[in-house]
Amino acid sequence: MVKNSFISIILQEQKENKENRGSVEFQVVSFTNKIRRLTSHLELHKKDYLSQRGLRKILGKRQRLLAYLSKKKRARYKELIGELDIRERKTR
């Protein structure tokens, strides 16, 4: 639960700056929050296939945003990965 409280703190900081709602960082944080909520929901309801589909779509969106961020702002990408405790994608 420490991760969720940390995400809520980040979201509050981001919400204070209304200009940053469209930023890649804010979108990644909000997608991460949705992913964690859906994951906990799916632990209880294993056969909720529509939620599973929604989770896969959100995961894909977050993955694309993180790929974009890693290309444009590598330092901010590393910082965001560390803050959200998301595993960095391995390159081949």
Structure description:
This protein is 77% helix and 0% strand. It has 92 residues and is an all-alpha fold. It has a domain of 59 residues: Helix Hairpins, CATH 1.10.287. Helix 1 packs antiparallel against helix 2 and helix 3 runs antiparallel to helix 4. The model has no long low-confidence stretch (mean pLDDT 85). It holds the Pfam family Ribosomal_S15. Part of the 30S ribosomal subunit.
SSE diagram, text form:
Elements: H1 2-16, H2 24-44, H3 49-72, H4 74-84
Helix pairs in contact: 1-2, 2-3, 3-4
Family: Belongs to the universal ribosomal protein uS15 family.
Pfam families: Ribosomal_S15
InterPro entries: Ribosomal_uS15 (IPR000589), Ribosomal_uS15_bac-type (IPR005290), uS15_NS1_RNA-bd_sf (IPR009068)
Give a quick rundown of the structure.
This protein has 92 residues and is mostly helical.
Principal-axes shape call: globular
- Determine the fraction of residues in helical runs and give it as a percent range: over 70%
Our Rg estimate from Cα atoms comes to 14 Å
Oligomer: single chain
Structural class: mainly alpha
Q: Give average pLDDT, whole number.
A: 85
Largest beta-sheet details: none
GO molecular function: structural constituent of ribosome
Subcellular location: Plastid, Chloroplast
Pfam family, one: Ribosomal_S15
Protein name: Small ribosomal subunit protein uS15c
